[in-house]
Design goal:
Elements lengths: L7 H29 L9 E8 L2 E9 L7 E6 L2 E7 L4 E2 L12 E4 L1 H4 L8 E7 L4 E8 L6
Antiparallel strand pairs: 1-2, 2-6, 3-4, 3-7, 5-6, 7-8
């Protein structure tokens, strides 16, 4: 009987180890690339309604997520001279938690926008400062003009 040593089994094991090593390296590189990207903050989902109450502009939170105090309100009268506020200066915070929650209102008095707005177009834009996205935009009209 003739017994010969063969290396066929060793070649299969080495080939499997090399393929496994390549898969682990590719998975590690791919994992590092995917996890190194910073995700964008999500845009809050909110329902806001703006209207006039006399000469006062009121924006009411009618549902959705609470908005932080650095949320920006932009008021534009007749497409010129925009005025910006953060909601912490305008908020009627009924529960005193510092957030704009459902049922709470922003109140912009006529002294805040200085010019006479009767018979003028008033556009309101609300921007979430964290995500830098517009969460509300619209034109409001006086209730007696509707």
């Amino acid at each position: 009987m003739n017994h010969r040593k063969t290396n066929k089994g060793v070649t299969a094991i080495v080939g499997t180890a090399v393929l496994l090593g390549i898969a682990i390296i590719l998975f590690t590189v791919l994992n590092f690339i995917v996890l190194s990207f910073q995700s964008q903050p999500s845009v809050p989902s909110v329902n806001l309604v703006g209207a006039f109450e006399g000469d006062t502009i009121v924006i009411e939170h009618n549902g959705g997520e609470s908005l932080p105090p650095d949320t920006v309100v932009i008021l534009i009268i007749d497409n010129e001279d925009p005025r910006n506020w953060t909601i912490d200066t305008l908020l009627n915070d009924t529960n005193n938690n510092g957030l704009w929650n459902i049922g709470e209102r922003l109140i912009i008095e006529s002294v805040d926008y200085i010019v006479d707005i009767s018979d003028r177009q008033v556009a309101i834009t609300v921007v979430d400062a964290e995500s830098n996205y517009v969460i509300m935009t619209g034109v409001i009209h006086r209730r007696d003009a509707i």
